[in-house]
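2024-03-11 09:14:02 DEBUG pipeline.ingest accepted 1 chain
2024-03-11 09:14:02 DEBUG pipeline.ingest length=383
2024-03-11 09:14:03 DEBUG pipeline.predict start
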Amino acid sequence: MSTISKRKKIVITAVAAVLVIVLVVGLSVFGWLYAFDYRKDPVQKATSVTVDADGKLRVLQLTDLHLTAPAWNGNDQQTIEWVKTAIRLADPDVVAVTGDAAMGIYWYRQREKGIVAIAEIFEEAGIPWMYTLGNHDGEWGWDTQAMVGRENEEQGNEELLEILQGYKYSLMQKGDTTGTGNYVIDVVDKDGNVVYGLINMDTHGKVFNEDGSRGPGYMGLSADQVQWYEREVNALCERAGKLVNSALFMHVPLYEYQDALDNYPLWGSFTQYSIQDHCYVPETNIGMYDKMVELKSTDFVTAGHDHDHNFAVMYEGKDRVNSDFPVILHYGRTSGVEAWERRIPIGASVIDINVNATTTESRYKISVIEPPESFVYNEYSGW
């Protein structure tokens, strides 16, 4: 055998060995990634938050972070750094994440990594935090890569709940109605008296057809959730010993958001965006807003979901028939660099609540924080 042939054989053997090593290591990492279980045992934690001596509470709303879409990359790290910066700038009493913190359309196990990364920021800061599920959080299930319909999404959400309930400062609860994460957090004064409520509700994902395939539009709340809401508001007021106000945190906005955008002026002094005329509201109006007006507790609603909306409206119903009980309908500022087709700057909404105020307009102040000029981030990548 010639010297050249021997060299070729040695080179081929070496390359083959390297490829085997790379394959083994790659499969090991892949197996670890997909086998690692982030779920935790539930821990005993607070079910209330406390206002300051002046009856004020600051909520930082983060929405549509969309980590791991399409994969854990530099844009995700920018989003993580922005969350840390937003907490530092806002100095909130409680954080509200209104859905779609992570996605699993392409890398289903990676979204657990995204959720955990966000949770650990809040835990390190020692800030109570609420989580409201979005349409992408449990999408396709967390233990399968196949899209198999509603049942699989519900499984994914249940597994996400197992992760989030294991954190000390997490306020998330399952709830006893349709969906995962329908719960009320009491807001109390220094003496422990209930003075306000923070309501979180699961707006589910896409509408499903009878054959299990995905239909058009989004489900939103269900009729039994409206009944649950009525029970919980009555229970909140019973704990308070009087009628108290409350705020509703959700992902997919109420049906009435479209009418609000079409027929009402914007409310609030912050810079607002409404790049498109369409709001991605549920396909069906199940009467949630009407129930809110009837009970006269919830006078503030905030949602996410639409990445190019960030506005507020003082809503009084269709044709202003409910002028005696105005409700602020608010779209939170999209917070994730990789939010789908995002065309507005990332940021976060700061909601200052004064529980002692006597009118809806004076009870709430909304502001938006954006990354400082020194914080450089990428445009949406177009996944």
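2024-03-11 09:14:41 DEBUG pipeline.report The longest helix spans residues 3-35.
2024-03-11 09:14:41 DEBUG pipeline.predict end
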